[in-house]
């Protein structure tokens, strides 16, 4: 996630005609209000007049930024790209969270599915997150296409939850792992963050369902194994 501002759409200088800087953010979890209340107090103590507006979906947030109703949008990656395209690249990228650097997506397979590489995905049942999730749907499917995997040979099911929040709630990813553990699918797509959380909480591989593992691809030089780079 990162902050974007639209030079030339709203004020050329953020807050130029209004002493209060208004930031838009997606209301995707119960903690969001607490987080931004803390941010507000931080900026006010630093001498910056600051307030925020919560949006139920990123599309409304992007439109509010383009319409000059907010000064800054705290966007996810898909909303960030849409803002850039809508402004012809004129939007300003102010920064992003350090925890989002090197964000990784995993292809998770059932051990019993006997899938050892991408070629083994043909005719398999694929579970993906919500359709507007960059990490659990859009980018991984694009990656598979770029690697020559014919998606029309697979039975693809989308776990659409909280549409409009671009996968921020990760509910679709949680449902993907539950379905894999039940044996309903052969392979699923989730972020490494959600995979690690599921392992730590014993929501997967705890002996009560199918054993799951990360699909790895052999290096093109044939040396060792590496996670798929999505």
UniProtKB/TrEMBL annotation:
Pfam families, sorted: Phosphonate-bd
Top-rank lineage group of the source organism: Eukaryota
Coiled-coil segments on the chain, per record: none
Protein name: Thiamine pyrimidine synthase
